[in-house]
Amino acid sequence: MTEKAHVKSTRRISKIWLVPIFVILVGGWMVYTQWRDQGPLITIELKSASGIEVNKTPIKVRDVDVGQVKKIELKPGLDGVLVTARMEASAARLLTDKTQFWVVSPRISFSEVSGLNTLISGSYIAMSANDEGNEERQFVALERPPATPIGTPGLHLTLKSDDRFAYKTGDPIIYKGFKVGEFEESEFNIEERQVYYSAFIEAPYHKLITSNTRFWNASGVKLHLSSSGVEVETGSLETLLANGITFGIPEDSPPGERITGESSFSIYEDEAAAYNTRYKIAAEYVLLIDETVRGLTVGAPVEYRGIEIGEVSRINATDIMEGNILDEDYPIPVVIKIYPGKVRQQDNQESLEFVKQTLRGWVERDLRATLRMGNLLTGGLYIDLHHAKKISQTSMETINGFEVIPTVSNEFTQLTQKADAILDKINQLPLDTLVGDTRAVIEDMQAAANALEETSSDVGLVLEDLDTKALNRNLNQVLTDVSTLLKNYSEGGLSQGEIQETVDAMQETLRNLQPLLLQLNQRPSSLLFPNNNGTDRQPKAKSGERE
Question: What region holds the Mce/MlaD domain (predicted)?
């Protein structure tokens, strides 16, 4: 008996299909997770792709990887490259219109040394950390790292200058030897012919910037040769190698209001020029100089009693008076400025009128201007306003709207004029005749001196003869008698009679000398010149010297 098989259809799925289904689900979940977690694609425009490699060059924020370069291609205009990078999702909120990118590579310059760590690890693209602004996916990279990354606490300023040289990005801003900021960007304005700079002052030094702050150049070494002498001015070591500026508040000025927002300042040539800008109003006068102005420079001080009250603004201002320097007796017009602020007045129109009225009264009385030597080494001159003596009163003149302050010559010029007058008189003297007469007088004096010398020799001979022939003989005889007397007396050999005889002999000898001594008292010259009945004795030369 055979049994029939019963075939039944089944709709049950084999368990073996669970494996691929599970794999598909896991793979799909991974793909979804990867798609969900991946960041956006961005495009960065660069000048060149030097040091950039696909799938190797990272994008970093504060040395943390937040993306990677995926593609590099040329721009359609062939003026750069486009870099496509995949960013991480966590960095998506940083991609705004204020985000900046730049390539970090080794850089060596006067102002900085950076990126040396990339010599081993290779270049990378740095990104600023800033979540402000609108969402953005296309960017233009900076040519160099920003001087101050966005978000750095401090103060941004706009500086302008018309100097012959420009400051570069990264040049320092110095305050009392400390670097407190640096230049970020520069732009030249052709119409104004000035350079505008974006600068940044770091915190907490940004609190030093006020409305009265002045900036001036502090680059290199400056040698000033002025009427006050030689001045050498240097900044820090950093400004010796590269350009730089410094700032401060002028003396006798209030600190001013603190600057909290974007502001504009000018960069001046030096500290003096920066501080003088606080004086806005000045009274202008003209000096008509009749002497040389060599050594007088624009900016030379104008002083009153040793205090600087102004400066020279123009020399040989040809628009003030007609004529030129080749005309005879043409005075050189020099324009000076006197600031009310430098004479302890307010910097306003009222003080200006007060200064003008005061100087007008002084000029009508005795105020005069003089060129004086400020320094013998440099030969620099300055203007000295002083009250001259023995000056007649005069009214103040006006030339083309400028009031004229009269001038007088300085002491050196006056001495020179007097010396010239004395030399002219000396030149008019008959010097040849005077020299001949003087020579004759000298010859006569020489002859008289020779005659006197001969007379002195004859006197010496007579004195020698007198000593040996007269006085010596008599004195020796007296001394001999005295010696004999003392000897005999000491030996006891002389009797009283002998002593008496000896004394008598001495008296006789003294009586014989008495006429000679009397004659010497009455006529001392009788021994030299015996009595010749009134005839003068003429001195005679030695026998061997007679012709």
Answer: 39-128, 292-385
